[in-house]
Design brief:
The protein has 114 residues and is of the alpha+beta class. It contains two helices and five strands; from the N terminus they run H-E-E-E-H-E-E. A five-stranded antiparallel sheet has the order 1-2-3-5-4, with helices on one face. The chain binds adenosine monophosphate (AMP) and zinc ion. Zinc ion (ZN) binds next to helix 1.
Length: 114
Amino acid sequence: MNDCLFCKMVRGEIQPKTVYEDERVLAFRDINPQAPTHVLVIPKEHIATINDLRPGHAALAGELYLAAREVARLEGLSESGYRTVMNCGRDAGQAVFHIHLHVLGGRQMHWPPG
Ligand code: AMP
Ligand code: ZN
């Protein structure tokens, strides 16, 4: 057991607004959405940051993108487009240390990001 917020969601101790779930991945709505669709895709396995990814996680890392693709389809974003972002560490502003792929869409995105 650990105190990680997203692990608590995986264990069902906190109920997120789930959008998609399979054996290894969970996707739920961000509590502070930055776009009309803002979903976080997480592995059910606790991995703190991108720096903690190992070669054995290669398939799982790919599954995060396949889940993001499915979230985009469910949210009607496949054609209009969407952005995926995974922050790593202090300079990127990572706040929750369980990796998560942000899926943002439903408005025009800007570049460069802030
Ligand atoms: P990051 O800054 O990349 O670590 O993103 C963390 C994200 O988690 C932020 O967008 C938060 O709004 C989101 N977040 C924090 N707590 C919750 C929660 N209880 N449920 C859903 N999203 C959350
Ligand atoms: Zn965790």
